[in-house]
Write a structure and sequence with these properties.
Blueprint (H helix, E strand, L loop, with lengths): L4 H19 L14 H6 L9 H22 L7 H4 L8 H17 L12 H30 L10 E3 L2 E6 L9 E6 L6 E5 L3 H29 L3 H27 L5 E2 L5 E6 L2 H9 L7 E5 L6 E5 L6 H15 L12 E2 L4 E5 L12 H15 L4 E5 L8 H17 L3 E5 L3 H9 L3 E9 L4 E8 L7 H8 L3 H11 L1 H84 L3 H18 L8 H8 L7 H13 L3 E3 L5 H18 L3 E5 L6 H19 L6 E4 L9 E5 L1
Helix pairs in contact: 1-8, 3-5, 3-8, 5-7, 6-7, 12-13, 16-17, 16-18, 20-21
Length: 720
């Protein structure tokens, strides 16, 4: 465990950079095999010793991966992956990368892809293996011929086949016929019913095979010694690459665990601090993940000043010890440079020592009882505790008579607090709960319990002591009411009342926590709806602008066509010079134009044409009809009470469009008081409408509450 801030910070950052590099598909992090070559490489420092084929194959794979990694590090971004680039122990120098590549090529030249010495590793080896293959083939053919004849003569079994004994090819023969097949007996079966004979015809050939095998072995050793001699000057370079690969392998293992746990690098503070949100016990997380069960997260904060020590109480099997172990394990992981499973809002500090007293350390050999072992740990804690210590004590003070055990536990805890140490303790002792309430640096914490269902919730609630629910659990297990009542009398009503108060506090806190959660959910739904309404409003405004722009463009196009037609008609009438037919045709075109643009008056002579030339076209007759109908049906009051927000907004937009179109002088929008949501929606819309009118150079609408005698704040009066 590291205690230096810079060291821990670097370890966490380099682990995080490795995680990012492996997750980035654009980087294509290399994958390969790593073999531990340290012992083999150290051995060949001695002249005459050499690597065998399997070791050379492992070295080839390992160095190939090292070269890939070195090239990968060389191509990384200097800023984003600065620490990761420092992993290269040879600093990605092209000369040393070339040396590693050269070693790989040298091994490739003598080994095949299966890791065996290749036939072309040397000309001599190639010659020996060719002769050996020919000799073995010749012996096989001769033995096959002898065996066929022996089968035909009935000297051997029909399923007999050549086999190998002491490196020589032989045939199995029953003992009674061994003299009929001349040769050398090399072995016999365990039952004595078969002897293995090397026929005289292949003795010389088998001798030659043995000679060639010896020659092959000597040539193989010579080749391996030669390649090892080439490797020997590079042993330091190879070992350096091994250290880099080991570091990469270790980082990859930490990243793999972090990915499994969904762990992150929290904000690191150069001071003793523990501020975790939604922390999860790694082992419990992995165990529950296999069963598809959720882990209840832990949120805890210990900081200098107040709330430096947490006293956790609550029922048995309620999760107190798990909380304690979560703190211990995650803090240790963090100071070992490992990412931890906490929320991104978490912060973490460093401690110079973590003291833990969890479980039973009794020892018959050392004559230690359970309580004695706890006291020995407490003695060590009190001697070494300081403001940079984190102590974790499970079931503090247990193992002896409760009254004195609780008193000693409180005394030890008081001394640890006075030394400025940070800590988490679990307990059932009431006096420790009182001590936490009365001491500013100490805070109570409770493991919540569902009193109705009589089951633990495994949730830590900081700020209050927890009840052990001893009476309730005893009653649930079936103990008689007489026994429970007698126990209650022994303890005293004061203790029972205190425990009940703790239970009531826990119940009330759960109730209000559920209420807060419900409010948060409703607020989230409301925010989503508001966002959706704003998006719809933006769409409506954009559509409205698009329609207005399109209408203006169509009007401009119509005016342009009208002016062109008028000018052309005037020109034709002038050219006709009292030609009645041509003048009649020209006037007909103008009449048709009047029908198209809905001219407001009858054109009678040449002067009317001049007037129309510079006059905007009137609205089509269908539009005039619609406006007339809306004017007659328009009401000066809009009632949106009881409407949903989206429905009210839709009605309000349509109503104000009609009001502006018909030229209403004053309108009233009846929204009621209620929660004020509809009034706020109305005012927001009118403010937005005014902003749009100002942009277009129009006068803003005036609006406000109605007369107090006629509705007041329950309605909005708009002056158009």
């Amino acid at each position: 465990m590291e205690t230096d801030f810079e060291t821990v910070s670097r370890l966490l950052m380099i682990t995080d950079q490795m995680r990012l590099a492996q997750a980035d598909p654009m980087l294509s992090f290399p994958r390969g095999e790593i073999a531990d070559m340290r012992e083999a490489i150290s051995r060949i420092r001695i002249e005459g010793l050499f690597l065998d084929e399997a070791e050379l194959d492992d070295l080839r794979k390992t160095l190939s991966f090292a070269v890939e990694l070195e090239n990968f590090f060389e191509g990384l971004d200097d800023q984003k992956y600065a620490l990761l680039k420092e992993l290269s122990t040879i600093n990605c120098q092209s000369s040393t990368i070339s040396s590693l590549s050269s070693i790989v090529r040298s091994i490739d030249a003598i080994l095949d892809r299966y890791g065996r010495l290749a036939d072309n590793a040397s000309p001599e080896l190639h010659r020996i293996r060719r002769e050996l293959s020919n000799a073995q083939g010749s012996v096989s053919c001769t033995l096959a011929s002898i065996l066929r004849q022996a089968k035909a003569d009935g000297l051997v079994d029909s399923d007999a086949a050549p086999t190998l004994r002491e490196g020589r090819l032989v045939i199995p023969v029953p003992p009674g016929y061994k003299r009929k097949i001349g040769g050398i007996v090399h072995d016999e079966s365990a039952t004595g019913k078969t002897v293995y004979i090397e026929p005289q015809q292949v003795v010389d050939a088998n001798n030659r095979i043995r000679e060639l095998e010896g020659a092959e072995r000597r040539e193989r050793i010579r080749i391996l010694q030669t390649i090892t001699d080439k490797l020997r000057p590079s042993t330091d370079l190879i070992l350096s690459s091994q250290r880099m690969l080991a570091e990469v392998d270790f980082l990859s293992a930490k990243v793999s665990l972090a990915n499994t746990l969904h762990a992150i690098r929290p904000e690191l503070i150069d001071a003793p601090l523990l501020d975790w949100s939604e922390a999860r016990h790694p082992v419990l997380w992995l165990h529950y993940a296999q069963q598809n069960k959720p882990v209840v997260p832990l949120s805890i904060r210990l900081q200098a000043g107040e709330n430096r020590v947490l006293v956790i109480s609550g029922p048995n099997a309620g999760g107190k010890s798990v909380c304690l172990k979560t703190v211990a394990l995650l803090q240790y992981m963090l100071q070992c440079g490992m990412l931890v499973p906490v929320n991104e809002q978490s912060r973490a500090g460093l401690f110079r020592q973590i003291m833990i007293d969890i479980g039973d350390e009794q020892s018959i050999q050392d004559e230690l009882s359970t309580y004695s072992s706890h006291l020995r740990n407490m003695r060590t804690f009190l001697r070494q505790a300081n403001p940079y210590t984190l102590f974790l004590i499970d079931e503090m003070g247990t193992g002896t008579e409760p009254l004195i055990g609780g008193a000693l536990a409180e005394s030890v805890l008081r001394d640890l607090v006075s030394k400025g140490a940070f800590g988490v303790v679990t307990t059932h002792y009431t006096n420790l709960k009182h001590f936490a309430e009365q001491t500013p640096e100490v805070v109570n914490g409770a493991m919540l319990y569902d009193r109705g269902a009589m089951k633990p919730l495994f949730q830590l609630s900081i700020g209050q002591a927890g009840s052990s629910f001893a009476i309730e659990i005893a009653r649930q297990t079936g103990l008689s009411e007489d026994i429970i009542r007698y126990a209650t009398d022994l303890v005293g009503e004061e203790h029972i009342d205190y425990d009940k108060q703790l239970q009531d506090i826990a119940r009330d806190k759960r109730y209000w926590e559920n209420k807060r959660q419900s409010i948060r959910q409703k607020e989230k739904v409301l925010e989503e709806r508001i966002a959706r309404y704003e998006e719809q409003m933006s769409g409506i405004k954009a559509k409205k602008k698009e329609m207005l722009d399109q209408a203006r463009q169509e009007a401009a196009d119509l005016l342009q066509r009208s002016n062109a037609t008028i000018e052309r008609t005037i020109r034709e009438i002038k050219e006709a010079k009292a030609d009645k037919e041509r003048t009649k045709v020209a006037r007909a075109k103008v009449e048709a134009l009047k029908e198209e643009v809905g001219a407001p008056k009858r054109l009678k002579d040449f002067k009317d044409l001049k007037v129309l030339k510079n006059t905007l076209p009137a609205a089509p007759s269908s539009t005039v009809s619609i406006v007339r109908q809306r004017t007659l049906a328009f009401s000066r009051t809009l009632d949106i009470r009881g409407c949903r927000a989206d429905e009210a907004l839709e009605r309000l937009i349509a109503y104000m469009d009609d009001a502006l179109m018909v030229g209403a002088g004053e309108v009233t929008i009846l929204h009621g008081t209620g929660t004020g949501a509809l009034k706020q929606l109305t005012r927001d819309y009118l403010n937005d409408l005014n902003r749009q009118r100002r942009k277009r150079g129009k006068v803003a609408l005036d609006f406000g509450d109605g007369d107090v005698n006629h509705g007041g704040a329950g309605l909005t009066v708009v002056q158009l």
